[in-house]
Amino acid sequence: MNEQKVFREGWNFNAHQLGVSPGVFRADEYVSDVDAAVNKLIKDIEAQGGNDLAPDKLKGFIAEYWHADTFNIEAALRRSAHRAYVEGSNEHASVDVSTNFGADYSMKYYASGKASAINQAKNVIQAYHEYLAKSKTDLPLTFEQYLEKYGYSGAMKDLLMSVYRGQGRIIPSDQLSEAIKFLERKIATESTKNNPNRIALLRSYKETLQKLSDRITDGEGVESRPLTKEEAEVIAALTKDGKFRAEDFGYSLDQLITPEHILGEALKSGYTAAVITLVLQLAPEIFKSIDFLLKNGYLEKEQLYQTGKITVSAGAMGFLRGSIAAALTISCKSGKLGSAFRAVLPQTVGALTVLALDTVKCSISVALRKMEAHEMGSVLTKEILVSSAALAGGAVGQIIAPELPVVAYMLGSLLGSTVALISLGIGEQFLISYCVNTGFTCFGLVKQDYVLPESVMKDMGISIAKVDRIFVDRTEINQIIPETVEVTQVKYETVNYRYVRRGIIGINKVGYVLS
């Protein structure tokens, strides 16, 4: 067995497989992240069903989770690290939704745009009167105690500012236009008055208008989905009846992951696969070039040319394998190819993609007469067996080191395919030896060639000439009977004997070779 050939085959095979692996795992992780975000939306909304509030009262709580979770879903789709969180606090002027990018939000879902805007602009004095109206104790806090508890100064300019100042103000999307018009009217009214208290109110209305919106946004393209008052009430009613279905509102993997998302992820995975494949394919060539340079003091032009060809070919094929495998992985896991494919393993998709593309490549080579059919069968049979061993080795690697899923799989795959190639090399050696001695073709996998090689025919005194195929018109030739000619026997003083035997003359091809 040629150990160098086995190592070279194993290295090239793993360059293909390992280049694809990070991309398919990345694609699988992408779908898993989106799926987890969708499931959190479902869980959070369904959890509100146990609340005793009526739908028109529950809608505000629904809005909090809707905006936070739909923002997180969009962030997962865009691979953004930004996230939003529902605080769940009922304290005075508390933040309803916080984020990890420095923005906080207040949610108000009232009966009208005017009412929602008024509550978003509510100042300290108005908040205190609201507290008194809702207080259930006989000894409510005095105004001074109230200010001290929540850290307000007694300055009128502070008391007339909104208690939600600094926060984003989220209201129903169908009320946004009405709320903006209301605040603009209030600003126009207060602008005509030069009283210090009115100036403070003017600042409060301006700040509220500036922060008013119908969605959470990070300013980088990630946003929550706007929600109308009616939609919030419908979701609340469905939740209380146990009939909320996220897909009815466009939140299923199949609906969320669009062809644009698949293309974007495929391109990123293709770039990664191209780089990894290129590095793995170039590494042996670079080492050979360095070794040649150290031994001879120069580099050959042909060697550099071959390295350049490998660079272009490896990068292009790596990108093609990586992008196709990632696109197929996302399509399968998101359900775009049917629910039956959702459970497919990403590494299986990667291996099948490599095998499919290599099959196409071999088929083209056969069509161009650069490869024979039996050679294609041999290559693909070996690749199927090695792929199976690589998948098994990768699975073992993940079990041994689950904290390093991608690296562990790649190392396990490398070991599994190497063992498989060595085993196949030994088995192939025995098979070819058996075919040489018996003429067995192994059901067409080994080709038996019985044409004498040119060197043997030349030794036999047979002149050999290459003749191009010539097409001639058919004609009738009269039968010729030659006369008998006697040939004088010639005796040679010496005779040289050369033996021919059966041996390997190509990929899984047995023929005559000179001893």
Task: Fill in the keyword field for this structure.
515 residues; mainly alpha; three-stranded mixed β-sheet; five-stranded mixed β-sheet
Task: Produce a short descriptive summary.
By secondary structure, the protein is mainly alpha-helical.
What does this structure look like?
- With 515 residues, the protein is mainly alpha-helical.
- The model has no long low-confidence stretch (mean pLDDT 80).
Distance between the termini: 20 Å
Task: Give the strand order, joined by hyphens, for the main sheet.
Answer: 1-2-3-4-5
Basic shape = elongated
Strand content range? 5-15%
The helicity comes to 55-70%
Q: What's the overall average pLDDT, rounded?
A: 80
Please write the string of helix (H) and strand (E) elements. Answer: HHEEEHHHHEHHEHHHHHHHEHEE
Class inferred from helices and paired strands: mainly alpha
Unreliable segments (pLDDT under 50, ≥5 consecutive)? none
Biggest sheet, in brief? 5 strands, mixed
Cα gyration radius (Å): 39 Å
